[in-house]
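Can't attach files on this board, so I'm pasting raw text. These are the components:
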Amino acid sequence: MEKGVLVDLTRCIGCRGCQVACKEWNERDVRKTTFKGDFTNPVKLSSDCYTNIQFVETEKKGKVGWSFIKNQCLHCKEPACAAACPVGALTKTAQGAVSYQFDKCIGCRYCMVACPFDIPKYEWESVSPWVQKCTFCAERIEDGLLPACIKTCPTETMLFDDYDKIVAEAKKRLAKEPGKYVKHIYGLEEAGGTNWLYISDIPFEELGFKKGIPSVSLPDYTWSVLSSIPAKVTGFVALLSAVAYFRGRGSQEEGSE
Amino acid sequence: MSAQENKQAVVSGGAWLAVLLVAAMIAAALYRFSNGLGAVTNLSDEVPWGLWIGVDVLAGVALAAGGFTIAGAVYIFNMKKYKPVARAAVLTAFAGYVVVSIGILFDIGKPMTLWHPLVMWQPHSIMFEVVVCVVLYTTVLALEFAGPFLEGTGSALAKTFTSRKVMVPLSIAAITLSFLHQSSLGALFLLMPSKLNHLWWTTMLPYNFFVSAIAAGLAMVSFEYVIASSVFKHECDMDILRGLAKGTAIALLVYFLLRVGDIMIKGNMGLIFADGAGKLFMLEMALVLIPMIMLFLASSSAQSAGAIFVPQMLVLVGIVLNRLDILFLVQLKDGASYSPSFVELIITLGLISAIVVAYRAAAIKLPIASPVRADN
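---
Top answer:
Structure tokens for the assembled complex are below.
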């Protein structure tokens, strides 16, 4: 059954327990960080950091406050990264996770360039680097456990369930408190839909969510090119053969080559 | 045929610099393989594709397009006028593709797994198409180049490999594979409509890449023809140069109409004045229109090679700029920055030098420059 997560940004208190749980479960190294002027720490996702909480200063009805954004892979329903990968190292599992098979990857990094959310990161410091990103704790889900970040969250910011139920719950919350939430479920349509959905009380563009992501399946663009290859090859070979035959008749009659 | 008039040493004068750069590249490559990508390049999570993908692969493949264009003109369209440059064009393409393959080997994070796409097929990936095209077209180019190579070594097989019954099918394969490969490099960016400025992003990207590559390939053939004539001290055939000028100009006109027409139809003209990217776009279009007009004028009347050489060089600059614009517009966002490291520069310069050295060696040792046969 395809799973999904609803992230209700109004519930997050910025405790970063999810960051710690993720690091522990996935055995990611800790890196020394420095104070950069806000409280986001680490500042960016990296090959050792699958998820972070981004602290954003916001203003709502004249009152200054904080919003806390949980960043990680959104697990697209039709992932651009999986369509990008030349060896099929990235795949979408039946449970909804975009999964990465280390042993296949050649390190072309097209997935990193292709991802509309800039999620996959690279082990730049390694001589034999891999791509790293949130795994949706696929092996935990398989065993009937919650993803590590969700299990540890004290405020139930994230709701994990069947994808359809998640969508229904998001719509229900928006309908129930229209004054509280902005009228947008981020991820419902972006890039053709993602398995992680967000609802918020602050407009998403003010929180640094990526804008202008079309509500279509991105791999459709490349598949329309790839699926027409047989027809194009047939056309080219037939046309060029005909041209070569008619244009070359003279030289053959002369026996010149 | 095997007796070449060219008695120059394979390495002399300026060629020593190229050899030196190739040696430096080999040292840099060893350093890259032992220390890893992150240690020797300025690439980052924000900018995972840099100079090597931009110049060695994207620009390199476009500049190698003369191989299939000229072979197609000579063997498919039977335009015998261009036969004297056909072998040089195929040689450039062959050397170019070998260098592109080496460039990819340097660039991928795990060079030891370069063979994976050959057994782990992923027909839904444009990158897979790119890999298959590189492998197949390099093979075709090797076969196309077998003729002059065998002639140079005096082999009896040379006659077979230069005959129409071999060259015509090879040229058909070359054009078909090149169409797929050139267009697939554009199709790589179809996945990024939200990341690439819509003065560049369009579902027409594959066709824009193919048509502009034809212009770039013809410009490259002209460029080399003039340089080779000067280095090896033989006359430039102005009839050939004027014909190439006309071909480049037509390709540029088609390219200009495709790009600007598409932007107008989609109502994106306003983007030209929106930000800095608009200025880059205008520069690109200037580097299409100015050489196009110069080449159209020169195609009917030019008496000196210089009148064609200059606009053809502008074409090369324009197409390289286009490929780099696309590559970096996709990545340089949110304050990300990138400038190539010393090792990145040395390897790219070394790869370009390797083409120069290989071309020079082949031009001196093999019947490349004047392959006009008595029976032609």
